[in-house]
Amino acid sequence: MSSIVILGIFVADTAYRAERIPRLGETILGKSFNLSPGGKGSNQAVAAAKAGANAHMITRLGTDTFADMAIDVWQKAGVTPAITQHDNSYTGAACIFIEAETGNNAIIVTPGVAGEIDNSDIDRNADLIANADIFITQLEQPLEVAMYGLELARKKGVRTLLNPAPAADLPDGMLALCDFVTPNETEAEGLTGIKVTSVASATDAAQALRASGAGAAIITLGENGALYHDADTTIHMPAMSSGKVIETTGAGDSFNGSFAAALAEGMTPVDAVKFGCAAAGISVTRAGAANSMPSRAEIDARLAQG
After folding, report:
1. Overall pTM surpassing 0.85 (yes/no)
2. Among 55, 60, 87, 198, which is disulfide-ready with 49 (CB 3.0 to 4.6 Å)?
């Protein structure tokens, strides 16, 4: 089984569905509430494990109810924790607004003790990273630790994937440590200054990311699929619908985790992008983030439909 190591955070997602976001000072009635596991790193670990990879999660948790939730969801998904627990802070949480009509979302994340992740978390798991097929990180934990992890993985010959979310200015040289970088439209614009509104502009942004050092760039385009660009190939992969969109929360994480799982087991990058699009297309038909990640059997069945 292929091995993937994910550096990131877990948060408990508190999701509120309503017609619109309230204005400051205003209270409105919502349509529903849901408490579920989230955090980009954790979601990607769950997605990778359910897609068939041996996924390991590096993070910090508190010693509270939300930490119990994290450990439980990882156990059920098949994720191996590589964590420490701390009683001086809390396990992370997120406030998610979901627009009732469209399923689109806006999110506030508070990392809690995972915001204190430092280079010692990487050093403690150096052998785990060195023996992985792929190392994945995002930008919800301290950025300098993400870079340190990418540097270690690159030194050990491990393929690296950066999901640059939430959007942030990257230090010089960070993209050069990435075999794959996977921003969405907004994040790609923040990194390149190119507004992504079409496949053509996504291609321009992907070219700019490669010019900054990334080995390959994948711009995820929501309902329009994904754009893949490397030194030899540029291809637009359409979205793969699996039914009515219920919620887009976690779709990008579903793509990243399943893309990495496919890549780690030997698929070509283009086939892995298609695999990721199939997984993301299933995930948006379900509520929640980690809870929406499809199984390998579901992804294979969707791909078989063409």
Report:
1. yes
2. 55
